[in-house]
Write a structure and sequence with these properties.
By secondary structure, this protein is α+β, with helices and mostly antiparallel strands. It has helices at 7-20, 72-81, 132-142, 198-207, 245-248, 261-272, 322-331, and strands spanning 2-6, 32-38, 41-47, 51-58, 61-64, 66-71, 87-93, 96-101, 104-109, 124-131, 157-162, 166-172, 176-183, 192-197, 214-220, 223-228, 231-236, 255-260, 281-287, 290-296, 302-308, 316-321, 336-341, 348-352, 359-362. The protein is elongated and about 80 Å long. 36% of the residues are buried.
């Protein structure tokens, strides 16, 4: 194996692929990136057995094809440290890779490509195609509500619900829920539900660009594969049953207020400074024309914020985790937010006043 490539062309796929590779591995080969040169196309593959990412790039000069695995972190650090306009010459001989650039020369240990684990091939069930920017919007507006290390492992990921006329994504950690629906026509008869793991969502979001490029999502029994021209991303699906999100959506809320998103977010952020650091609870008092936010902590410190809102009706007082409200208000892409409440024991429904199909549910807190 022997090829020449510019640092700029090599670095982008190497950075993305290295992001999948875990630093601490039980199998030494999983700390490596697989380099596979066929004709003038070089593919780079990283995996942690849950998620696999393959990047493709054309080399400037190709001398001999071949495949080998190289320590991912070291190779990335070497390439980052070279000058922007550097040219890299990489060759394999006697189980060692030599990388030359200008007057620099590095020799790295390797492991055989045959030891590198691949994702099991399985029959595809269906595929959908959409704009990368649209998918990125869906993930950006909902992924913050995924659980992090919940024992209910199916919450440590995101539900993709695909039907003939829409794609819906839902994330929840049991205390809040984020959901957005995109209208589209899909080659499918019955709605299908699949859960992608948290790491798969994060890696896929890093891949997506806001340009008009298309992305193809192929769903199998146990895997999802996302393909764009330069990359192929594969992730295992979570084997589990996602909670029925329709039961979580509040029904019959009779207190609807409209407020400026930025003003509300800033007021909650200021009040949160003096909230209890452990529980992050604030009291929200809604009355005609205003929303009052009260926070206090064990040191007897108090904060009070009053925000003008469009509301007429009965007064209500509800406790919330202030971090959850700030997350939603930071995500809404609208000047004004619509918040629907009913009573102190019911969840709040938050949404943009216009221009978005995203819905957010935040459960109340007893304070």
């Amino acid at each position: 194996m022997h090829f020449v490539i510019s640092r700029e062309a090599f670095l982008k796929p190497l950075q993305l692929v290295s992001g999948v590779v875990e630093r601490r591995q039980t199998l030494p080969v999983l700390s490596n990136v697989l380099l596979d040169l066929k004709q003038s196309e070089l593919s780079l593959t990283g995996t942690d057995l849950e998620v696999e990412l393959v990047g493709r790039v054309t080399v400037d000069q190709m001398h001999t094809s071949g495949a080998v695995t190289v320590p991912a972190r070291k190779l990335l650090d070497i390439c980052k440290s070279l000058s922007d306009d550097a040219i890299i010459e990489l060759s394999l001989a006697e189980n060692r890779v030599t990388l030359k650039s200008g007057r620099s020369r590095f020799t790295l240990t390797t492991l055989p490509a045959s030891e590198f684990p691949g994702v099991d091939e399985e029959p595809d069930t269906f595929s959908i195609t959409m704009h990368q920017g649209k998918l990125r919007e869906l993930l950006d507006s909902t992924s913050f509500a995924m659980a992090q290390q919940d024992v209910r492992y199916y919450l440590n990921g995101m539900l993709f619900e695909v039907a003939a006329d829409y794609l819906r994504v839902v994330a929840t950690d049991g205390h809040r829920l984020a959901m957005e629906t995109l209208t589209m026509s899909n080659p499918i008869l019955e709605p299908q539900q699949l859960i992608l793991p948290r790491k798969g969502i994060m890696e896929m979001a890093r891949l997506l660009t806001d340009d008009a490029g298309e992305i193809s999502l192929t769903f199998g029994q146990n895997h999802i594969r996302a393909s764009v021209p330069a990359f192929t991303f594969t992730s295992k699906l979570v084997d589990g049953k996602f909670p029925d999100y329709n039961r979580v959506l509040p029904k019959g809320g009779n207190k609807v207020l409209l407020g400026n998103c930025q003003e509300l977010r800033q007021a909650f952020s200021r009040a949160s400074i003096l909230s209890n650091e452990k529980y992050r609870g604030v009291r929200v008092l809604l009355s005609n024309g205003e929303l009052k936010i009260l926070a206090n902590n064990p040191e007897q410190e108090e904060a009070e914020e009053i925000v003008s809102v469009d509301y007429e009706g009965d007064s209500v007082e509800i406790g919330f985790n202030v971090s959850y409200l700030i997350d939603v208000l930071s995500t809404l892409k609208s000047q004004r937010a619509r918040i629907t409440l009913s009573d102190p024991n019911s969840s709040a429904l938050l949404e943009a006043e216009e221009g978005s199909d995203a819905l957010y549910v935040v459960m109340p807190m007893r304070l």
